[in-house]
Amino acid sequence: MRVVMFGYQTWGHRTLQALLDSEHDVVLVVTHPKSEHAYEKIWSDSVADLAEARGVPVLIRNRPDDEELFERLQEADADIIVANNWRTWIPPRIFELPRHGTLNIHDSLLPKYAGFSPLIWALINGESEVGVTAHMMNDELDAGDIVRQEAVPVGPTDTATDLFHKTVDLIGPVTIGALDLIAAGRTEFTQQDRSQATFFHKRSAEDIRVDWTWPAEDLERLVRAQSDPYPSAFTFHRGKRLEILAAVVSQGRYGGTPGRVFYREGDGVVIVAGSDARTGRNHGLAITRVRTEDGREMPATEYFTTMGGYLTGRP
Known about the structure:
Elements: E1 2-7, H1 9-20, E2 25-31, H2 47-53, E3 58-60, H3 67-76, E4 80-84, H4 92-95, E5 102-106, E6 114-115, H5 118-124, E7 129-136, E8 146-153, H6 160-168, H7 171-183, E9 199-200, H8 216-225, E10 233-237, E11 240-253, E12 261-265, E13 268-271, E14 283-291, E15 297-299, H9 300-303, E16 311-312
Helix pairs in contact: 1-7, 5-8
């Protein structure tokens, strides 16, 4: 089939690479300009550079809403558009333009985790698996019929970075497998159960601020979800920002006030956690590695030279 590709960052790059390596013909690529946004500088392999290296025409757009772009799409005479990590709304006159419409690739197991940062949110929420979905685009974001979907398990120590590498390897087979079904004449696919749909917003600094009233199990997943190269989860100690690079749920149960720097356990320092921590039934979060405000990384047992005091959400 003749394919126009809309995409950005490493997700779009992997999609374009799979298309270029397939029997399908990529006739035009549309991508976003480079961004200085913290999350958009992560996994930032260039779609434009790959397309240009392979001799495919490239258009750079923030939004696909101008007449020149529409005319170029009409001239491309595509059988299908394939989109992955396109960051702005694609209007119906574009996604309905090709003969077979538009296939969107999304890194979650739709209908759950539509929207943004699905791997991070899924890890924070304790999901047992994540994956990639190829679905037909319609008027509602990430809501169209599912053409192909593949899942991978979430391991007990997996970080968001681990899950990225697991799922990015699914992009090629999911994309090409879905295109092959469409090229073979399939037109009926699996409708999403909208009663199971969830929709998540972009991550921001507020989302990585540690709330010590969360249970330790949730905080441990937050730390893993904010693994390098993502911005680390952070708290404040004695008025200065402290990033938590690694932590585990404590073996013992610790009672008191959430945020209290309480006890050395193994290689970590236990912080009291949970809204009902006063009952003494909760596990704490045993922090094992931190980064200080001036950029120094060290074991938590080296940083916390004495017990006592509190970690707080604000200076």
